[in-house]
Amino acid sequence: MEDFEEESVSGSESEGNDSVMSDGELQEAFAKGLLKPGLNIPLEARKKAVNNVEGLKQCLADFKKDLAWVERLDLTSRPLPDIVAKADGKLTTLDSGEIQAEDDFQREMYFYRQAQAAVLEALPRLKKFNISTKRPEDYFAEMAKTDHHMQKARGITKLMAKQASMEKSEKAKQLRELRKYGKKVQTDVLQKRQKDKKAMMTAVKKYQKGMTDKLDFMDGDQEKGKKGASGAAGPNAAKKKRGPNAKRQYKDQRFGFGGKKRGSKWNTKESHDDMSGFRSKAAHGKSGKNFGKGGKQGASKRPGKNARKKMKNRS
Question: What's a BP term from Gene Ontology annotated to this protein (predicted)?
Fold first, then answer.
């Protein structure tokens, strides 16, 4: 068994050497010019063209049928002459027969006029055989597509229309929902405003009655504005930290610091309960001092309107 394997290996190696040697020999022969075209590649001989006219005519006679012209409708005609050029006395290339096959315009015009000549020759023949050449008014041609196909197309159209209507209704529904949401938001905002207004009016009434001395409800908007602006440092943040400038300091020194002016004369609980400056005699007119209407002691009373008129007439 081992001897057989060694023999097979040595045989394959010898075949490989022979193939390498054969390739080397071919390369040397090619370099020397000993190899010529056709030695290694088989060349097929060209087929000989045969123009057997008699055989073609015989084949044509075999399958040709002798039918009437109505069944064949074949015509062989020359192109019509150019009437406009003929009236002007000009001779066109189509009339002279000198047509250039490479010229697309001349070629198409030749086909067009040849078709015209065929139509003018065929129409009288068709009328002679009582064959109608025009479509009747009540003519219904067979449909190119079947009824099943058309019903399928109509079904697709209906589905598309139904889908469009569903999309339209969905958009309308979304608009209604948005309107409801907008109305709800608007109602919530109005209710919040009314609630804030009611709370502010209640705080004002409490302050007027002396039930509280706090005015926080008036500073609510200012505090909200300060809270909103505290998050982002403005360009004048460093300037505010340094304090007011010299001009502002001079005005504060001369005119004061301003302060709260609104409600400065309102009564408070402490001022209402303070009775230290109350004098009963002065309040009831028993102090012995007779103050007139003008506020001066011993001031004369002004006469009435009728008395003044009489005095004026006397004078």
Answer: rRNA processing
**SS3 assignment for 135-168:** CCCCCCCCCCCCHHHHHHHHHHHHHHHHHHHHHH
| Contacts with 121 (C-beta within 8 Å, 6 or more apart), sequence order | 75, 77
The answer to whether 93 and 106 have CB atoms below 8 angstroms apart is yes
Whether 292 and 298 have beta carbons less than 8 Å apart is answered as yes
The CA angle 255-260-263, to the nearest 5 degrees, is 130
Query: Mapping DSSP to helix (H, G, I), strand (E, B) and coil, where does residue 251 land?
Result: helix
Please answer whether residues 91 and 97 qualify as being in contact, where contact means their C-beta atoms are separated by less than 8 angstroms: no
In tens, the pLDDT along 283-301 reads: 766 655 555 555 555 556 8
Q: What average pLDDT does range 241-263 have in this prediction?
A: 76
* Alpha-carbon span 281 to 292, nearest angstrom: 17
The predicted-structure confidence for 85-141, as pLDDT tens digits, reads as follows: 777 777 666 666 677 778 888 888 888 888 999 999 999 999 999 988 888 888 777
Token reading at 202: 């209640």
Identify which has the larger pLDDT, 93 or 275: 275
Domain regions of the chain by residue span: 23-141, 158-283
Q: Would you say 74 and 108 are in contact if contact means Cβ atoms under 8 Å apart?
A: no
